Amino acid sequence: MSHDLSRLGWDDFFVSAYRPFDRSDACPGRVLRVDRGVCTVLAASGVTRASLAGNVLLAAAQDPVNLPGTGDWVALRRWPDRRITVEAVLPRRTALIRRTSDKDASGQLLAANMDSVAVVEPMHPAPDAPRVERLLALAWESGAKPVVVLTKSDTAADPEAVARQLAELAPGVPVVAVSVRAEPGVDQLRPYVVPGRTLALLGRSGAGKSTLVNALAGTAVMPVQAIRDADGKGRHTTAYRNLVPLPGGGAVVDTPGIRGVGLLDNASGLDRAFADIADLAALCRFGDCRHRAEPGCAVTAAVADGTLSPRRLDSWRKLQREVEVESARQSARLAGLAGHRRRRP
């Protein structure tokens, strides 16, 4: 069965990047999932499994983010003994990367080459504002366009009111309330998964990500488990990142439920997630204002007059400190690598 890769986002950008690898025993493909170093890849000829070539492993040794991940476009090579290897990861247009818990300040690729990132948050028992803010910073940093998706809107007495409240936490970001059981349904998300476009879903376990994938696909392609009524939490139904091509074209990436998301040195994503505070900070009297007790601080003035909530400012400060710490760790890590290279004979 032949597959039209353009419906998955194969365009002139990737065609140009693939050109150096174009040969009779090679072909392009998109990574659907990665399991213990083996990639499941969709090529024009169909789905295949591929191991990693030596140069790909070498690049990953320098930085784990260089490993092929879900959503990546790769160059495949077919060998005479029928082995298939990933010879190269093509440049990424966007990349959703979180910080790992390791001490080396490394990153973990969650998805690549998505056009939009949906921060998925359930309405039951209640949306978690700090989590939404943190995930939005991660989504903005990816280079894709964020959207907040409030699931299980049928559990809220006034879902539109909840959506309006969340919109205050997401400047410039669409906020949609959806339910697979009642109106409005998931049709509001279909513009994000038209042919050639990819939507990545990001949220905690039990948020309804796998249910959204199944609804968009029109069939059960991802396992779904019931949530607990008391706290709205569910078990981890997705243990791996998975790209699902949709029947009408486009694709959606389901990610495992995330209990915590560490930020790297993504200051630009944080500024966009907190655009309201960034705009206020630009009005402060001093350029190096810390927004504590400095005279002429527009941020603390907004808190005093009720324009900005203390909770949102506290959330911004917490994430700002985290980014500053990670930026310092990244600098130390890069300096250590540079020193190691200089010491090698």
TrEMBL record:
Highest taxon of the lineage: Bacteria
InterPro entries: P-loop_NTPase, Ribosome_biogen_GTPase_RsgA, RsgA_GTPase_dom
Residues reported in the UniProt entry to bind GTP: 151-154, 203-211
Domain EngC GTPase: residue ranges: 112-259
The entry's keywords: Cytoplasm, GTP-binding, Hydrolase, Metal-binding, Nucleotide-binding, Ribosome biogenesis, RNA-binding, rRNA-binding, Zinc
Coiled coil region boundaries: none
GO BP of this protein: ribosomal small subunit biogenesis
Cofactor(s) the protein needs: Zn(2+)
Molecular function GO terms recorded: GTP binding; GTPase activity; metal ion binding; rRNA binding
PANTHER family assigned to the protein according to its UniProt record, in alphabetical order: SMALL RIBOSOMAL SUBUNIT BIOGENESIS GTPASE RSGA (PTHR32120)
Protein family according to the UniProt entry: Belongs to the TRAFAC class YlqF/YawG GTPase family. RsgA subfamily.
Official protein name in the record: Small ribosomal subunit biogenesis GTPase RsgA
